[in-house]
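Justification of computing resources. Each target in the renewal requires a structure prediction run like the one illustrated here; the chain below, 225 residues long, is used simply to show the kind of job we budget for.
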Amino acid sequence: MFGTMSLTYLSALIDTTIGNFGTSQAATYAGITNVFLLSLLIYGISSSSGGHVNPTITFTTMTTGLTPLPRGTIYMIAQTVGGAIAGGLIRGSFGYEMTQKINGGGCFLNTDQISVGQAFIIEATSSFILLFIAFGVGLDPRQAELYGQLGPLLVGTTLGLVSFASAGVAPGYTGAGMNPARCFGMAVARGGFRDQWMWWVGPLTGSLVQTAVYHAVPPYHTRAK
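Resulting C-alpha cells:
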C-alpha cells in the first residue's frame, strides 16, 4: 500500500515539476525518473512484499502461478487503496484549481487528439511489453537467479523505456499508464473518472496475453538432466 502510494504521489510531483520547466524533453525526463523511482521502490520493499506496487504485475504473477491467489488479492486491494490515498494527498498538496490544471498529475486523455480506441491499443500493448521483459529479467524466479540484484533495476529500466516511448504520442495524452492503481489515484485527485476503464482493461488485456505467452514459451530453458 505504502509503496504504491509513494509511487503515485511522487510520479505526480515529478510530472508536474517537469511540466513547469516548460522543457521540450519532457518524455526523456519522465522516462529517466521512472527508472530510478520504480527501481528504488522495488529495492526498498522487496523484502516485505516482493516489490509489488502495480496490480498489473501482481495479477500476472497470479495468473502465471507465481503468486498465490489470496496473497495477490490482498496486494491488489492494498495497491488500489494506496493509489487512492495518494490521490487525496495530491489534491491536498496542490489544491483544487492546481490539481485540475495538471489533471491530477497524469493518466489523462484528450479525445480531440487521440481516440479512446487508439489509447487502449497503446495501453494494452505497452503493458504486455512491460510484462514480457519484466518476466524475462527477474519476475520469474529462475530468471531472478540469473540476474540477481540487477532485477529491480532492469524492471525499472523497462518501465522507463516504455513510458518514454508513449509519452509524446499525442498532445493531451500522457502515454501508457500500465499501473491501474496509480491511474485510479490520479483520477481520485482530479475527481473525474472519465475513461477510467481503459487504464484497467488495457493492462488486463496485456496481462492475459503475457500469461498465455509465459505458459507457451517461458523465459527460461529447461536444463538437460
